[in-house]
Amino acid sequence: MQIYMPVPRGEGGGAGIVLLYADNYEQIRPAYALPERGAVLGRDPGADIHVPTRAASRQHARFERRGDAWVLTDLGGRNGTLRNGEFVTEAALAHLDEIRIGDAIFKFVESDAERYAHYRIDGAYLDEPAAPDVRPRFSTGRIVGGYQIQRLATGLREVARSELSVLIRGESGTGKEIFARQLHEWSGRSGPFLAVNCAAIPAALVEGELFGHRRGAFSGADRDRAGILRAAHQGTLFLDEIGDMPAEAQAKLLRVIQSKEITPLGATQPEQIDVRIVAATHRDLDKLQQTGSFRADLFARLNDFSITLPPLRERKEDIFSLCIALAGRHGGAEIRPSMAFMAGLLHYDFPYNVREVEALIKRWAAADRGASLELEDLGESMRDRMKTYAARSTASRPPPMKELRASAAPPEDEAAPDGEGVSALNGPLPPRTAPGEKALRQLLVQHQGNVAAVARVLGRDRVQVHRWMKRYNMNVDDFR
């Protein structure tokens, strides 16, 4: 088994900032590593990080290392400095914090900054600075994205012509089927690519759909019917939402993978097939195995090679190139997004991931208002999110150096007691306090997985709610 996922933080170099958007992005490096001595960012060509945008001051902001944390300090320019949509004077930075300097928006990364430097936000690959380990050596076709996505695509391409089963994990809407289709194209297999959603087929029909049946196998079976596995002979079968497959069908699928044979309902003799299995899920298969809902032996067979797709909120540097690609796919030959439009996109967490960006672009293309993308082209939830954009922070000063933890991440919140659940919260949380696991779970159930709504109840940013969910090992899709 081989598993590919985004490079663990700390293995790709130092902290830095990654460009998410600027109107003149061609004039700005895709990423900057922060030197240990710190760095000044500004419009001055002599600044450590030169950002040639008129809305930036000559010396706009400073990144400074204090202990093991990085602190962002505004240097008093006319337009101010924003972190996560709030004006700040000084602020300790956490991984993936968004920073706006004039009309350029970056994200802070705790490590691996230089690995992003090859990939411009429009999808162009830059030869300098060199990093041979991440340079694409092939076309990634329908897969769109920069460093994180290209690394996953490289791993997938390496096993494309093998017989290995592949498991693709990731939240809903992250592009699991796109990766599966691209794998099939790279595989060179002569048969078709077929996809089946295991969650959409009633349990009583799964077996017949997958394995087919013979005439007379059951009431109403008036003729032979080839199942999906037979139809995918010499090709690839994509089993989406494999975690929702009924137990009986799991056992039969395991036998198919092991024996390369299928026995249709009502048949007495097995039939040989040659099918590459690619499975996908947003569910925690490890937890499902522990509860007995998913067979461990089937998991072992499906997990010859595994990749985990990051949610869009963790790879916002890809949003602009996704807009370009999706606009071309849905009839928009050119896009010209305004700064307000891009600020709105980047300030949003995309609970439904790339699927949500595609829906937005399809609506824009259908409206046929030309190449321009303005604030009104954003979805309603995105516009609601922008109502608090550029607010003045009431707590923008970082804690003294002695209080900064040994990580650039913000200090761990003290968990509130769980005993009375949501009712114990009684409105916004006090500073440095997290909801208990039970209370957070109840809020997510109450709001059907709407993280923005939960954040409003707790008086916190959605990014912080996502951190709490990660701490408690919660998946937002389980509440929708």
TrEMBL record:
Domain FHA: 39-88
SMART domains named among the record's database cross-references: AAA (SM00382), FHA (SM00240)
Region (Disordered): 390-435
Keyword DNA-binding among UniProt keywords: yes
Domain of life of the source: Bacteria
Keywords, in A-Z order: ATP-binding, DNA-binding, Nucleotide-binding
Residue ranges annotated for the Sigma-54 factor interaction domain, each copy included: 149-366
The name this protein goes by in its record: Sigma-54 dependent transcriptional regulator
Lineage: Bacteria, Pseudomonadati, Myxococcota, Polyangia, Polyangiales
